[in-house]
Amino acid sequence: MLRRILSIVLILPISIGLIMLAVANRHPVALVLDPFAGVLSVDLPLFVVVLASLIIGVALGGVTVWLRQGRYRRAARSAGRDARRANAQVDNLRAAMSERAPRGPMAPGGGMGPIAPVALPGRRDAA
């Protein structure tokens, strides 16, 4: 519901502005397609020229952004494949570990027993 309200709040003023632009700029202008001879020209209302320029600019900008972000989409696809591969490997390793796990009773107390501290080479404070 909020998304619908936001779209109405955004689209309504833009639509009103475009309608006002179209009504205020109905007089024809010559759109010359050949700058040297002036033979190829079309008479169009000014609002058509302005709106067509806006639409073409937005479309070209969108295509440019889409093309420039191709490397990021490619990296995201690669990362997704790597993540799926890693998840499959984790599942396989878990299945292998559950098959290799001891089936008998555990150590008394439910654990592995006391673990003695290990002295690491180069460390003096190992107890």
From TrEMBL:
Cleaved signal peptide residues: none
Pfam family, one: LapA_dom
Region Disordered, residue ranges: 98-127
Keywords for the protein's UniProt record, in alphabetical order: Cell membrane, Membrane, Transmembrane, Transmembrane helix
TM region(s), chain numbering: 5-24, 44-67
GO cellular component: plasma membrane
Residue ranges of every copy of the Lipopolysaccharide assembly protein A domain listed in the record: 40-90
Superkingdom to which the source organism belongs: Bacteria
Record has Ligase as a keyword: no
Coiled coil stretches, renumbered: none
Protein name as annotated: Lipopolysaccharide assembly protein A domain-containing protein
Organism: Ancylobacter defluvii
